Amino acid sequence: MNSPQFVVRPFDPARARRVRLFLVMAWLGSLAITAALAAWLVMRHERAQVRGDQPNPEVEALKSRIVVLERSEQVAKAALGELQSTLRDREEEIAGVRADLAFYGRLVGGARREGIAVHALSLQPVPGSQAWNFDVTLTQNFRRGSETRGRLTLSVSGIADDKLVTLAWSDLAGAPESSGIGYAFKYFQQVKGTIMLPAGFEPNRVRALAEGEGGRADQEFPWNEAAKAGETNDVRQ
């Protein structure tokens, strides 16, 4: 006798959610088709009444069925909207978990030792001004247990007067921080500060540069993604 064959397949939660969404949409489609057919039959009956024909009990039943189908469609649409919202929330949670895993994986590092790195950057606008608050997460696992020191600066590329312009740190920060913002940490640190953009300037990318005892880290981020990360962080707080 042959031994039973077992097949192991990886479970894909994202695929399962897509299947559920497809089934809900298919259900909505069937409801819409049924309602359209019933409406056509009722319209045909009403035209017959105009011509003087007697009422048909089957058509009256169809009218009641249309009301039920319309209510079912409303409930299904509400359920679909809630499902889509839940899927978006779950995708954001998964993305957040993956980012956290990458962050802690960088700190642990295993056998791989890395110097200082720019792990993340987020931006938040200051209402009523051209200023933006920033939050840069720095990590290092090369000098475990030892403090690393240095300074962080930002630069921003964008469009001004229809020309590509790059604003240096000296153009963005005030005089007290002209040499950059200092950092000192053993494992990771969130360096916070504020930059001021000139009027009429449209930012495209932001670059973070950390230099110090742990080496040099130079990382560039799309401005829109950094601003979106700032909105997400603000909601979590």
Topology diagram in text:
Blueprint: H1 13-50, H2 57-108, E1 117-125, E2 131-139, E3 148-160, E4 163-167, H3 169-172, E5 181-185, E6 188-196, E7 202-212, E8 215-222, H4 223-236
Antiparallel strand pairs: 1-2, 2-6, 3-4, 3-5, 3-7, 7-8
Helix pairs in contact: 1-2
Short summary of the structure?
The protein has 4 helices and 8 strands, in the order ααββββαββββα.
User: What is the structural class?
Assistant: alpha+beta
The low-pLDDT segments are: none
In which range does the helix fraction lie? 40-55%
Count of helical segments? 4
State the total count of DSSP E strands.
8
Fraction of residues in β-strands: 25-35%
Tell me the overall shape.
elongated
Distance separating the two termini:
62 Å
The biggest sheet amounts to: 5 strands, antiparallel
Mean pLDDT: 77
From the alpha-carbon coordinates, what is the Rg to the nearest angstrom? Answer: 30 Å
Order of helices and strands: HHEEEEHEEEEH
Provide key terms for this protein.
237 residues, 3-stranded antiparallel sheet, 29% strand
What would you note in describing this structure?
The protein is an alpha+beta fold and 237 residues long. The chain is built from 4 helices and 8 strands, in the order H-H-E-E-E-E-H-E-E-E-E-H. A hairpin with a 2-residue loop joins strand 7 and strand 8. The radius of gyration is 30 Å and the shape is elongated. The termini are far apart. The mean pLDDT is 77.
